[in-house]
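In this notation, each integer encodes one residue's backbone shape. One such record reads:

___
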Amino acid sequence: GMLLIELAAQAGVLSQARAAALIDSLTPIVVLTQAVRIVAMWPWWRHVARSTLVPRAESLPPLKRRLGSVGLALLGVGLQFVLGVALTLILPLFPDVMDEYTELMDSAGAGSSDFSLLSVLSVTVLAAVGEEIVCRGVMLEYALRAVSGYRGPASHAPINDRMFWIANALQAAAFGLLHLNIVQSTYAFLLGLAMGWVYWKTRDLRYPMVLHLSINAASYIIEPISAALPSVAFIA
């Protein structure tokens, strides 16, 4: 989207002022690309899932499934608080990195009272659904096939713990790199490991989606809560 806007400005189709305004408000373009990603990647994941190397999980009754989803949602809020405390303690040690990260979060609307419904939809629902399909659905599957020497549905290789964690680290690294900045890439890698493990244990993308959505949604409440509480109370 940014490339097309810049090319349009260079070609005279858009004025420089109009191009700058569009780049400053890219949320609609981001939402559009997120929707396209989901539409494009969902059939691909459904295709590879037919011969997935992820082991079949125990079928849980509806109540346990609901409790599991609630537990993951609460875990996501907790992880976001831990992340908020960690960043509060570490980022001041690197002022340039902190300034870049703060500007990025403000532009996304996270942690700010000035955000739109569209930005919330983008950061929470569309990001969680799309990134889980791509990273835990498609990328993890191909990473498992790569480390196990998979040669087709008739020759499934058993996946041991070592193979899983190598494959899980590969998809988590890709997930981190997708964020394109050092701070988010670092903690996205760690969270990607957790969400990959959740998918491995459940074989149901809805569970890592719930965890992912909860983590992202909780980012909107960290700043107002931390501002309202003394530091010691917030950390506690």
Notes: The mean pLDDT is 87. Residues 83 and 187 are 8 Å apart (CA to CA).
